[in-house]
Write a structure and sequence with these properties.
Layout (H helix, E strand, L loop, with lengths): L1 E8 L4 E6 L4 E8 L7 E3 L6 E7 L4 E12 L1 H12 L3
Antiparallel strand pairs: 1-2, 1-4, 2-3, 3-6, 4-5, 5-6
Amino acid sequence: MQGRVCIEYRRLSYYAVECENKEFSIIVVHRGLPSLLDQLTGELDLLGEKQVFNETTKEELAVSILSARLSLAEAKRYIVDAVKGR
């Protein structure tokens, strides 16, 4: 599945990725550094530890998929709650 980084909170390494089905996944990046609008390829809609390929920078990212199949509003709320420690 392909997706595009559309929200980032680099301090916590949290990112929201819009998948090709127009749903959003929340990822935490452990290795690598994506930027806004980067194109990612991998199992973006399945929870757990994954290797995702950044098509824009041609690098492998080690990520955790924390949540999937969210709306844009739910993705924003997830990141806001994470920032606030909820």
